[in-house]
Amino acid sequence: MDLLSRVLSLIPVSGRLDVRCHFGAPWAIAQDSAAVREIPYHVLLSGEAVLEHGGGPSEPLKAGDIVLFPTGAAHRIHDGSGRQPAPPRERQDASLVVMENEGSGARADILCGRFLIGAVPDRLLREHLPGRLVVRSADTAGASLNGTSEAAESGASTRLARLIGLMREESVDEGPGSEALVNHLSAALFALTLRFASGSSQPPHGLLALAARPRLQPAISAMFDAPEKPWTLDQLASLCNMSRATFVRQFQDVIGRSATDMLTDIRMTLAGHKLVESSLGVAEIGEMVGYQSNAAFQRIFKRLIGVTPSRYRTLGGKVEAA
Fold first, then answer.
1. 91: Cβ–Cβ under 8 A, 6 or more apart, which residues?
2. Strand residue runs (E) in the chain
3. Would you tell me which CATH number, out of the four given (2.60.120.280, 2.30.29.30, 3.40.1710.10, 3.30.420.10), belongs to the domain 13-202?
4. Residue ranges of the chain with pLDDT lower than 70?
5. CA–CA distances in Å: residue 286 to residues 9, 206, 282, 294, 318
6. How big is the chain by its Cα radius of gyration, in Å?
7. Domain 213-314 maps to which CATH number in 3.40.47.10, 3.30.505.50, 3.30.1360.120, 1.10.10.60?
8. Could you tell me the sign of the dihedral formed by the alpha carbons of 103, 107, 109, 113, in that order?
9. Whole-model pTM?
10. How many whole angstroms separate alpha carbon 21 and alpha carbon 45?
11. Going by C-beta distance under 8 Å and a sequence separation of 6 or more, which residues neighbour residue 279?
């Protein structure tokens, strides 16, 4: 199983499409920090926009662009004119809220929603994705990369475009099951967006860049397949046919953290699953994910997840990030 499939199989992500915006300039969408376990997203169906996030430089957006915020950071998207936005009005459509305004300038059509992370430790996902991810589904230009042909990259972009088109259609459809269907499509959008980003010529630092490094995959597979083993950096490097120094350098260059850190996040995610989904004892679960000492497992789990394993189980995994 590839890296993204492994991560997404451990961390369930569902989707909710909340609002469809039909705006004429001037307009603006401002969102505060998201709730725990929520990843806001926006899809620019038509028109152009400007993204502001985290005090950095603004970024232009065009039709087909998908923007998501894995850390749930506050952000603002607007028409770029600098004029005072026209106040929107809200109406309830068959399956979602529609926002419109009286702006007479350039039109923009935007889908706004959330990806919802299930009740498992989510560090493996959140800690290894950028704070902001922009995927340009309409852009199929570019040379071959990592042995993947331009045609394959274009094909991934086409699939994203088809999915977005289906979301657009279902968001205005009043047919039976439209609301449920558009939310399922929203969940698929998350996985396909990450896949597309990991296959780009310059995948974002972290999990997406790691997914594009086949030489490191034997070590990643070993961590997932046998987390209970006392893996050392020398052993993991050997699996990749690298020296220890080369392995450490490549892992750090790609993800910005050590292989040991990632192994710990994998273990915590697996432990969270077992705590909620099984009746096994805490010490037994700790041993199954690589901790011979129950005290060590309890200490690391609480430091990274924020509560003890027993408390996590009692809460059904519904705890805020540490």
1. 97, 98, 100
2. 13-24, 28-31, 38-46, 48-53, 59-62, 65-68, 75-78, 89-92, 97-100, 107-117, 133-136
3. 2.60.120.280
4. 94, 139-156, 174, 321-322
5. 20, 27, 6, 6, 20
6. 21
7. 1.10.10.60
8. negative
9. 0.87
10. 10
11. none
CA angle at 203 for the pair 48 and 121, rounded to the nearest 5°: 100
Tokens describing residue 235:
């052993």
Cα–Cα separations (whole angstroms), residue 170 to 70, 188, 248: 25, 14, 47
Rounded-to-integer distance, Cα 279 and Cα 163, Å: 40
Q: Quickly count: other Cβ atoms within 10 Å of residue 100's Cβ.
A: 16
Domain ranges of the chain: 13-202, 213-314
d(Cα 97, Cα 108) in Å, to the nearest integer? 16
61-108 pLDDT tens trace: 999 999 999 999 999 999 999 999 978 999 987 678 899 998 999 999
